[in-house]
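Action item from last meeting closed. Structure (118 res):
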């Protein structure tokens, strides 16, 4: 009867090493958290804008809008997603699951912004 030779031992070590490496890779991937970028509304009567006007994010990331203004504003996408129209918006957050460029505006004042999802 043969006992486990040095070659078998080396092969076993190699397999275990590969498994350990795979475990590390998958752990690393799931640990990559999705980010949230913030957009506020700047300006005063007659000259408002979203700041920043263009946000670049990755698929699965979110954008959070908030403002505290002397005028009511909203965030309205052509997809009909929209925030409430308020002077103070504590938080309006959307997560983007598709790549593309998404334009939006404040329908009260007409200024625009965009979210670019890569
Ligand atoms: Cu507005």
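Sequence:
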């Amino acid at each position: 009867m043969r006992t486990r030779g040095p070659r078998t031992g080396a092969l076993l070590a190699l397999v275990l090493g590969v498994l350990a490496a795979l475990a590390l890779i998958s752990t690393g991937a799931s640990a990559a958290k999705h980010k949230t970028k913030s957009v506020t509304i700047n300006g005063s009567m007659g000259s408002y804008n979203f700041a920043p006007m263009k946000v670049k994010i990755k698929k699965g990331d979110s954008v959070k809008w908030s403002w505290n203004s002397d005028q009511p504003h909203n965030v309205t996408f052509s997809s009909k997603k929209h925030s409430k129209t308020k002077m103070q918006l504590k938080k309006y957050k959307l997560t983007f699951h598709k790549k593309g460029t998404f334009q939006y505006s404040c329908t009260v004042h007409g200024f625009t912004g965009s979210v670019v999802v890569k």
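Note appended to the action item: Residues 24-31 have pLDDT under 50 and may be disordered.
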